Amino acid sequence: MSVLDLVLPLQCGGCGIPATAWCEACARELAVAPDEPHLITPRLDPGVPVLSLGRYAGARRTAIVAVKEHGRTDLVRPLAAALHTGLEHLLTWGVLDAPVMLVPAPTRRAAARRRGGDPVTRVARAAVAGLPGVAVAPVLRMKPFTRDSVGLSSADRQRNIAGRIRATGAVGGPVVVVDDVVTTGATAGESVRLLQTRGAEVAAVLAIAHA
């Protein structure tokens, strides 16, 4: 352990072991398998395929929470690497064709301010590096005073989010909605609906994790 570690204790963002930001065991847990992402079926169908890189559990869950709630911006890199690999697979399989635009799912303004910006957008921007024809368009925003959906049922989440997302610009061509976690599918569904009403061709929803 270095003197710097004693001054600023470093812990793995996945399992908490000391002296490393991201350990090899957690890296293996987050790694995208050759057959991933997988097609999932959220409780609320957004009308397009929903794909996920893995379950919202273990090191994956801890890292996502650490980025969102504890300011661990150093963990954007491993999450982005996983998303990058997932996108590579979808492009190789022909599920997606470049050019394609990634549209991050929206977050509440208060949450974004507290987190120093939108972590999903940061992860998406880092993930597209080295992927020709893949770009990021953060055009979705939550309207003010949108309630946090944590703890709400599927029906309540859908009512809570209905009409609460706005678009700050148009997006042409194929679009993939990207999110950190798909729970019920309410946010994904409302995002897809709004983009489609503005003329976007939404090909899929891609999540780093699903609950």
TrEMBL record:
The alphabetized UniProt keywords are: Glycosyltransferase, Transferase
Q: This protein is called what?
A: Putative amidophosphoribosyltransferase
Gene Ontology MF terms: glycosyltransferase activity
Annotated organism of origin? Mycolicibacterium chubuense (strain NBB4) (Mycobacterium chubuense)
Indicate yes or no for the key word Iron: no
